[in-house]
Amino acid sequence: MKAPFSVQLRRNEQILGWLWLVFYEGILGFLVTLAAGAAGKELQPEISNGICLILGFLVTTVLFRRFLGDSLTLVRGNVGKLIGGVLLGAGVYVSAQVLIGMLTDVLGIVYSTPNDNLLAGLAKDHYRMMWAETVLLSPVIEETLLRGVVFGTLRKKNRPLAYVGTGLIFAGMHILAYLGTLGPVDILMNLVIYGLPGLSLCVACEKADNIWAAILLHMMINMLAMASLGWVA
Questions:
Q1: How far apart are CA 213 and CA 221, in angstroms?
Q2: What gap in Å lies between CA 166 and CA 175, rounded to an integer?
Q3: List of long-range contacts for 121-129, beta carbons under 8 Å, 24+ apart
Q4: Average pLDDT for consecutive 10-residue bins of the chain (233 residues)?
Q5: What is residue 114's predicted lDDT score, i.e. its pLDDT?
Q6: Residues 81, 74: contact at Cβ < 8 Å?
Q7: How far is residue 33's CA from residue 35's CA, in Å, rounded to a whole number?
Q8: What's the CA gap between 130 and 115, in Å, rounded?
Q9: How many Å apart are CA 43 and CA 33, to the nearest integer?
Q10: Ramachandran class of 40: left when φ > 0, alpha when ψ lies in -120 to 50, beta otherwise
Q11: In angstroms, how far is the first alpha carbon of the chain from the final one?
Q12: Which end of the chain is more exposed for a tag (fewer CB within 10 A), N or C?
């Protein structure tokens, strides 16, 4: 099976990547809150979120500096390929958004997206901070871990599994904290709403043969979302 990137993650980077993904998504936020409590502080959501993203960005860029750096170096002679990957991924993303909109209108589906609502609320009061976090920090963290580690590892074994598995994990990262408050329809729609953009990002990096295509597309999607305060990723 063809590997997705010319620049490959080493075995130790793959292992660290999976461990860091679990820690970042499942443990880091809890530890930040615990540490603040031990210091007698109660962190507001925007501060807690910001601390996690800054720590996540720093650790991710340090752990995967070789992978990100070598991938960036590869862009120099393949700018056209990078642009092609971004454009193809963007086309898939837009098509998916149109399809979702048509289906929900036709079927009259009403659903809740609590992650979008939370981030949109934070952005209204802390726009510049949220812009920096969602446009500059989050795409680097999520794409390195999801499209670099998860997609890159699974792609070597089974291509369909890599797409489906990465899309589901990407969606899960955005709804896991809210599962107790969501009904079956909400869960299904959130999986679709976040999962399909996840697939478009896989398409981008696979077409471009470079993780930076997914990072750039993710930045573009979040930048447009910030401009309209309509959060999608």
A1: 12
A2: 14
A3: 122/45, 122/46, 122/49, 123/226, 123/229, 123/231, 124/229, 125/46, 126/46, 127/226, 129/46, 129/50
A4: 75 96 94 91 87 96 97 92 96 92 85 83 86 94 96 92 94 86 88 89 95 96 82 40
A5: 86
A6: no
A7: 5
A8: 14
A9: 7
A10: left
A11: 30
A12: N
Residue type, position 63, single letter = L
In angstroms, the CA 154 to CA 57 distance is: 23
Place of tokens 């309509």: 230
Six-digit token string for 212? 């930076």
* Tokens found for residue 150: 């998860």
Nearest to 139 by CA among 60, 48, 66: 60
Match 């092609």 to its residue by tokens.
Answer: 84
Which tokens hold the place of 109? Answer: 């589906």
